[in-house]
Amino acid sequence: MKIKVENLNTYFGEAHILKDLNMEVPKNSVTALIGPSGCGKSTFIRTINRMNDLTPTFRHEGNIYLDGVDIYDDSVDVVDLRRRVGMVFQKPNPFPKSIFENVAYGLKIHGETDKDHIAQVVEESLKAAAIWDEVKDKLDMSAMGLSGGQQQRLCIARTIATSPDVILMDEPCSALDPISTLKIEDLIHSLKEDYTIVMVTHNMQQATRVSEYTSFFLNGEIIESGLTDQIFVNPKEKRTEEYITGRFG
Ligand SMILES: Nc1ncnc2c1ncn2[C@@H]1O[C@H](COP(=O)(O)OP(=O)(O)OP(=O)(O)O)[C@@H](O)[C@H]1O
């Protein structure tokens, strides 16, 4: 298992958001998190790279293990954790810098100075994110001039460049057109050979197309987890069936 979540409860002030969650995420797999708006999916993935720590009212109980080490242990370096657990957001958020600098940025802040090595990693990351052919002749151009779908693949390249183990994606296609969405889905498919991916999606078809495992969230609880085929074809819980067939949410 790459990630193991045990009895996780989280709070923002008095509000109890995630309730006694347990989950296991196998290495080199894609796990989809589905569920209605406000049920805690984003809060959950932001717990895996300790992004919620930036909210002063946040606190948690329970354990999240990454390769067997509790990520909330005092010995864990949060900067290193966020390098190992990268994140791609709903809206593409490139820096207002060149395409090259966007991808090189993470390497540089982690202290890399070898220009040849940086150039090599930038090229490899753009290739892995399936955008190299579209940008190789304009690496000095501002990333803000790319289309939304290209910007999202650039953000994925930026995440890959720092060699993460896990990539968290929070509705990575929700701001994209159908063709860009398919490109990102193909990309997710190829990325799982090297990375473990946990992805929030509101799109049921997308969950069935890209993930092997699915967890259904409702009101801060995980109602059902399992193989995506089983969850969508033969859910054990009535509430899962009602949600995936569009009866609520
Ligand atoms: N920083 C915060 N401070 C206080 N409450 C928060 C904070 N972030 C999220 N919440 C609350 O936590 C609950 C879960 O929100 P979350 O964004 O995790 O849900 P979600 O399932 O990802 O929703 P959506 O699908 O709409 O993105 C909501 O009630 C929300 O208001």
Automatic annotation (TrEMBL):
Keywords associated with the record: ATP-binding, Hydrolase, Nucleotide-binding, Transport
Domain ABC transporter: 3-244
GO annotation, cellular component aspect: membrane
One Gene Ontology biological process: phosphate ion transmembrane transport
Entry superkingdom: Archaea
Pfam families associated with the record: ABC_tran
TM annotation in the entry: none
GO molecular function: ATP binding; ATP hydrolysis activity; phosphate transmembrane transporter activity
EC number in record: 3.6.3.27
Keyword Hydrolase recorded: yes
Keyword ATP-binding: yes
UniProt-recorded name of the protein: Phosphate import ATP-binding protein PstB 3
Organism: Methanobrevibacter woesei
